[in-house]
Write a structure and sequence with these properties.
Largest sheet: 8 strands, antiparallel, barrel
Radius of gyration: 20 Å
Strand order of the largest sheet: 1-3-2-8-5-7-6-4
Number of helices: 5
Order of helices and strands: HEHEEEEHEEHHE
Shape: globular
Number of strands: 8
Structural class: alpha+beta
CATH topology: Alpha-Beta Plaits
CATH class: Alpha Beta
């Protein structure tokens, strides 16, 4: 009887350990928040967003925060927040005033990412909203993962992160970080990139929206 009790206890303990380990492996998440400031206020809004992002990165469930400005249209700003284990912070656009339009928050679960590397100060961040029709959701997820793996073999690649929108599984956020513009230009002509664009073209539900950014200094 004692042996049976010990066996039952050991089985229950093993199951508890398994469940705890599974919860620790939950996918990481990130938010991207799009802002559009009035052109004459872009510098002030960028500074305010950066101060807010730095404050949020000191806790509040945020593991990393970055403020980016779109190359060629610096009044269009983006805040990237990698979320920590503490949960999701409340997003606020109070810093982005005066605004030309309401902010737009996209919450994503990470489905693939390459190993993290130091990001050069002049790195080019390519943030793409990939919208496909629902029947192509799974094949697009696989195509994005394959693109990320191919990106990691190219010169000048810093990191690729593939996110799937939490409330719309057929919408994705693709973040590609390149060391400089030359590395990005080479990536555009790479066979793996052209194959990916060809593969997802029939699946697109809206134009492929890739925007180039650099960090707000």
């Amino acid at each position: 009887m004692r042996g049976a009790f010990h066996l039952l206890f050991a089985t229950l303990f093993a199951n508890l350990v398994f469940v705890h380990g599974a919860s620790a492996e939950e996918p990481s998440k990130f938010n991207v928040v799009y802002y559009e400031a009035l052109p004459q206020a872009k510098a002030n809004v960028a500074s305010a967003l950066k101060a807010e992002a730095l404050a949020s990165a000191k806790g509040h469930g945020v593991a990393e925060a970055k403020v980016l400005k779109e190359i060629g249209r610096e009044e269009r700003l983006l805040v990237y927040k990698a979320l920590g284990a503490e949960g999701e912070p409340a997003e606020t656009s109070s810093a982005a005033q005066p605004a030309a339009a309401p902010s737009d928050t996209r919450r994503n679960g990470v489905i693939w990412e390459s190993p993290k590397k130091p990001v050069p100060a002049k790195a080019v961040w390519v943030v793409t909203h990939v919208d496909v029709t629902p029947e192509y959701k799974d094949s697009t997820a696989e195509a994005l993962k394959a693109l990320g793996a191919a990106n990691a073999t190219l010169n000048g690649h810093v990191q690729t992160i593939v996110g799937q929108q939490l409330n719309r599984g057929n919408h994705f956020t693709l973040i590609e970080i390149w060391a400089n513009r030359a590395a990005f230009d080479a990536y555009q002509g790479a066979k793996s990139t052209l194959d990916y664009r060809t593969k997802i073209a029939p699946a697109l539900g809206s134009p492929y929206d890739a925007r180039l950014h650099q960090s707000v200094n």
